[in-house]
Structures are given as structure tokens and as C-alpha cells.
Amino acid sequence: MNNRKGTGMPAPAWEPVQRVRTYEQVMTQIEDRILDGRLKAGDKLPSERDLSALLNVSRPSLRESLRVLEALGIVDIRPGGGAEGGAVLVGEPGSGFVNLLKLQLALGQFDHTEVLETRIALETWCCEEAAHRATDEDLQDLEVILDQMEDPDITTAEFNRLDAAFHVRIAESTGNSLTAHLMGSLRTAIKRQMIEAYARLENWKETAKVVRKEHRDILEAIRQRNAEEARREVGNHIRSFYNIENAEALTHQQ
Question: pLDDT tens digits, residue range 196-208?
Fold first, then answer.
């Protein structure tokens, strides 16, 4: 009898998969084992042959399920047999979440109000924490990004890339890796929307001047360790850009 380590309790057996979306059933059983501690990052799943038998699914169906899980960033499929090959639970956040969020935004799953509210909630916290935790290296990196944004010949695509890098770098300076990952995911997801928003502006370089000034104010508040001011500056900065974008959209509709 297989016991859970240290508990003396029998480990629940793998269960045959019900004939409804195989990958969902497989994912449910893997998820249950992760949540109760039977599986953890870095663990290797049973071999394809053994797992297909345990789940009572065909090997082609299991392969399809594992490909979905790999695309979601849950498992890493390593080529070859033996100890080095097979499906392993990922140990670090992958691109799966970023890609899913990006596609859902592109398909219109979240409207601008939802994106605006999420950005304000996440970024105000980041700036507040950055004012407490940012190191000299963090501040220097943020300064370099803003200096690069001052290039008079900068393109909208490059400006947007640096804009995203500035906000992500602030998130990184909080020391909270999950927050930094969420910020990176969000900025990747709204990349196309941001580029299109700049494209709709009559004179995007004038708007860029405002954005650069607001970025400088945010950084100065963080440098001065003024958490409340940093929070207020980034909140106003995000609202300001969305107000400009909405005004331009209304102008083009008239």
C-alpha cells in the first residue's frame, strides 16, 4: 500500500478519466495533487504508458492533454526516455499565463474600464511599495529607461516598449516577484492596445511629453520615499492617459 509521506494515510489512487474533455480531467487530477501536496514543482509525472493506463485514456489522448498543459505553462515536456525525459511540473512561471491573458484581451474579454481599474489597483500598490523598498540600483535603472524615452527620434513602438519597461521595473523594485510577473503579463497583454491608442492620437509626441513628465514625477516621489505621493502620481498618470485616449476616440467617431 502506498502511503503519503509522514501521514500513514493511503495515497488516493489515480482515477480513470471520464469521457468528457480528456485534458480537463487530466488537469483536474494533477491540480488536486498539487493542492494537497502530492505533487510539487519539479516533480516528474508517471511515464506516458503508465499514466495512460492509470487514467484509462489512450496514449494519443494523453499526449493531447499534456500538450495543452504544456501550452498553459503547467508542465514541461522533455524529450527522450529515462530519468531526463517525460512531463515535469514547471518550477518557474512561464509564458502560458501571459499568452492567455494577451489573447483574451485581444478578443475583447475585458473592457477598458476593467483594464483601467486593474492597472490602477496594481500600479498604485507597486509605486507605494517601491517608495519603501527600491534600491539605488532600481532607481538608476528607472532613470536610464526615462533617459532613453527622451530620444527625439523615438518611434511609437519603442516608446511604448520603454513605457512598459518603466512600469514593470517599478513592480520589480517592490521585491515581490509575483507582482512583477503579473505586471509583466498585463503590460504584454495590452501592448497592442497601447500602440493603437498612440496611433489614434493627432500628435502623439505632444502626449509623449506629458507621459515623460508624469514618469519623472512618479520616479521623483519614489526617490524621495514619499509613498503617498508616488501612489497619487501613478494613479493620475494612468487616468490621464485613458482620458486622452477616450477623448481622441470620441473625436474620430464624430
Answer: 888 888 889 999 9
Q: List all residues 6 or more positions away from 191 whose beta carbon is below 8 Å from its beta carbon.
A: 102, 160, 164
> What band does 65 get if pLDDT is binned at 50, 70 and 90?
confident
Burial of 185 (C-beta count, 10 Å sphere; 0-12/13-18/19+): buried
Give the span between the Cα atoms of 165 and 78, in whole angstroms. Answer: 32
Q: Cell 508616488 belongs to which residue?
A: 230
Q: Which domains does the chain have, with CATH numbers?
A: 22-89 (1.10.10.10), 96-253 (1.20.120.530)
Owner of C-alpha cell 504508458 = 49
Residue 252 grid coordinates: 474620430
Helix, strand or coil for residue 89? strand
The contacts of residue 114 (CB under 8 Å, 6+ apart) are none
Q: What is the pTM of this model?
A: 0.74
SS3 for 186-212, per residue?
Answer: HHHHCHHHHHHHHHHCCCHHHHHHHHH
